[in-house]
Design goal:
Number of helices: 7
Oligomer: single chain
Shape: globular
Largest sheet: 3 strands, antiparallel
Order of helices and strands: HEEEHHEHHEEHH
Radius of gyration: 22 Å
Structural class: alpha+beta
Strand content: 15-25%
Length: about 200
């Protein structure tokens, strides 16, 4: 199985935001990086896929930029969430339930991009802490309905302090633009997985 980095290079989906594509005769493609004016030449295979360019660095990978930003978000959130006694996945679960009550486990998992075998232990911990209630749907006992308790809603309101907007160092316009670009990237990758 290819590593995430290798997979990204094969599909050509991880060019940096400052790159442009230039076509040349004889099946060659060039990726020009405008940050350092470097021209990376690669040969195109018969299948139309681009071979791995030797000059491509880890810092050129969009997938690594997103991955490393995610790790840094986790480190930045940790002291804020430790004060609330929550992990990040517990925190986003509480946020999602605060926004919409009476969600089924499957609906909540879809919203959080979590499989049920990952989400269920999170809900059990939150329930044992008194923040969440789980009840069988009276109309369909196969469905489990999840809600925040009064304590859970109060926890969410205390968690408004867990805000890293200022730490991101982005203007409001940049913040919205970056978030929307990441969401577009995520949705496009999800569509590609189902082709």
């Amino acid at each position: 199985m290819a590593t995430p980095a290798t997979s990204c290079v094969r599909t050509g989906s991880c060019r940096s935001a400052t790159d442009t594509i230039e076509s040349y005769p004889r099946g060659k493609v060039a990726v020009r990086n405008h940050t350092d004016s470097k021209l990376i030449m690669t040969k195109t295979t018969k299948a139309g896929k681009t071979a791995q360019p030797d000059a491509l660095k880890l810092t050129d990978f969009l997938c690594f930029a997103v991955y490393s930003a995610n790790l840094t978000f986790g480190k930045a959130y940790k002291p804020l969430l430790d004060a609330l006694g929550l992990t990040y996945t517990q925190y986003i679960t509480v946020v999602a339930l605060y926004e919409d009550s009476n969600q089924t486990v499957s609906e909540l998992g879809e919203k959080l991009f979590l499989e049920s075998n990952t989400l269920t232990p999170i809900l059990k911990k939150l329930e044992s802490a008194g923040y969440v209630s789980r009840e069988r749907d009276s109309a369909d006992e196969r469905r489990v309905i999840v809600n925040l308790t009064k304590q859970g809603r109060a926890l969410r309101e205390r968690a408004y302090s867990a805000d890293l907007s200022e730490a991101c160092g982005l203007s409001m316009a940049e913040f919205v633009e970056t978030r929307d670009a990441v969401l577009k990237l995520r949705n496009n990758l999800a569509k590609a997985l189902h082709k």
